[in-house]
């Protein structure tokens, strides 16, 4: 149960980093060496990423730098440098909201995940994004992992674990590396340079 609780915390934070630049509170946490040492996941990718953030703590990213990175990586002034939606990777025409987005949305309904309500004060801002945004998919992993951690019995636990693995394999695992390649190539801030490692830690924990 503790493993899934920690996965839920990590996936929630990582998903939010794809959806928007860090809030002041999150940025403080991501530059606090004591908190970074207690990052919920301790796999090699996660440890390498948190070590990178620790090294940058003496000269942290500015709000403006983070906003710029997020804009160019995931929104774009023409096209995003790290396309965050699943559907374009598998659409013959590279279209957002083509095919796979409806499958993702159906899974959200199955587990009771509501993207627009999962983002706190950003709900109105992000509620019109397509459902297959990698940030929403990671926050869905966080949602299901929390359900696993609170499962009332062994049967429900096993059912939810199976759903979690199925979703992680069928969706984020299919295109995350392509997104992360764009992030690795173009990120200029320490937070977004660390994001690929943090994401890989979440993805692997979800299918373990």
Topology:
Blueprint: H1 2-19, H2 24-30, H3 33-37, H4 44-56, H5 63-75, H6 87-90, H7 100-111, H8 123-126, H9 134-149, H10 154-170, H11 172-186, H12 190-207
Helix pairs in contact: 1-9, 1-12, 4-12, 9-10, 11-12
Note the main attributes of this structure.
globular, mainly alpha, 208 residues, 68% helix
Instruction: Tell me the Rg in angstroms.
Output: 16 Å
C-alpha geometry = globular
Number of strands: 0
What value does the average pLDDT take? 92
Poorly predicted regions: none
Given helix and strand content, the structural type is mainly alpha
Order of helices and strands: HHHHHHHHHHHH
Largest pleated sheet: none
State the share of residues found in helices, binned by percent: 55-70%
Strand content: under 5%
N-C termini distance: 13 Å
Helix count, per DSSP?
12
Description:
The protein has 208 residues and is an all-alpha fold. Helix content is 68%, strand content 0%. It is built from twelve helices and no strands. Helix 1 packs across helix 12 (190-207). The two termini are 13 Å apart. The mean pLDDT is 92.
Task: Describe what is shown at a glance.
With 208 residues, the chain is mainly α. It has helices spanning 2-19, 24-30, 33-37, 44-56, 63-75, 87-90, 100-111, 123-126, 134-149, 154-170, 172-186, 190-207.
